[in-house]
Amino acid sequence: MTDDEKLALKYHMYTYKTESNPKMRKMMVDKGWISEQPNIKEFLKDGYEEFELNVAKRIMNEVPEKVFLNNCPKCNKLARTPFARQCRYCGNNWHSLTVAQFKLENSVQITGRPFFLLGQITKGEIKQGQFMDLTILGINKKPKIEAIEFALKRQDGRVWEDIGLGTNELTEEEKEFIKNKGSFRIPFDIINER
Questions:
Q1: pLDDT 10s digits, 88-138
Q2: What whole-number distance in Å separates Cα of residue 147 and Cα of residue 131?
Q3: How far apart are CA 5 and CA 41, in angstroms?
Q4: Per-residue confidence band for 189, with pLDDT thresholds at 50, 70 and 90
Q5: pLDDT at residue 155 tops 90
Q6: Ramachandran angles phi, psi of 105, nearest 5°
Q7: What 3-state DSSP class applies to 24?
Q8: Between these two residues, 33 and 75, which has the higher pLDDT value?
């Protein structure tokens, strides 16, 4: 969402919650928690549902590559959640596409080498030629694993090895996004096909 869209969302939420308490609303306006600017109110002139649809349309038009829709590979209908692996419409299940899971700890780019995602295998076995499903990280991409290497780590007198999954299929913006994310609590899937 843009900053103005975020302000419009806040305006809607706080005015709705304080509609029976004008004193509270005035205090929130005075503290800057609710924006009374006409251009912010303009976003909501046709109602909240229309506002939501307009934001969704704008996002789909401006950055469709960053939007992940988890569609069934068989009937192409939308699954219940981004992590669902069974279709509620046709019953197809695609659990078998996931062959392993990998917990991201950090990442590194060495000049002349692939970009490496470092971490631990939490389930299964990973091989070159498989694909990393990065949608859970917020990147709508499934890059190919081109290299698998060990990374020796030292911290506070401890020594351990992380696994490095290398790929050349990420943009500079995507690499920077992953570097800034650092460690990620939920493992992402390793799959056999895109």
A1: 999 999 888 889 999 999 999 988 999 999 999 999 999 999 999 998 888
A2: 11
A3: 10
A4: very high
A5: no
A6: -105, -45
A7: helix
A8: 75
- pLDDT tens track for 51-69: 999 999 999 899 887 787 8
3-state secondary structure of 160: strand
Strand-pair category, 131-133 with 147-155 = unpaired
SS3 176: helix
Residue 151, classed as helix, strand or coil, is strand
In DSSP terms, 71 is beta-bridged to 78
Q: Which two tokens stand for residue 70?
A: 């988890």
How many H helices and E strands in the chain? 5, 6
Cα→Cα distances 184→65, 88, 116, 137, 162, Å? 22, 29, 15, 8, 14
Task: Please state, in angstroms and rounded to a whole number, the distance separating the CA atoms of residues 60 and 65.
Answer: 8
Above 80 in pLDDT, residue 177?
A: yes
What residues form DSSP beta bridges with 93? 86
Of 66, 68, 54, 65, which Cα lies nearest the Cα of 9? 54
Name the DSSP class of 77. Answer: P
Q: How far apart are CA 83 and CA 154, in angstroms?
A: 34
Query: Among residues 109, 98, 92, which one has the least CA distance to residue 133?
Result: 98
Give the other-Cβ count within 10 Å of 107's Cβ: 22
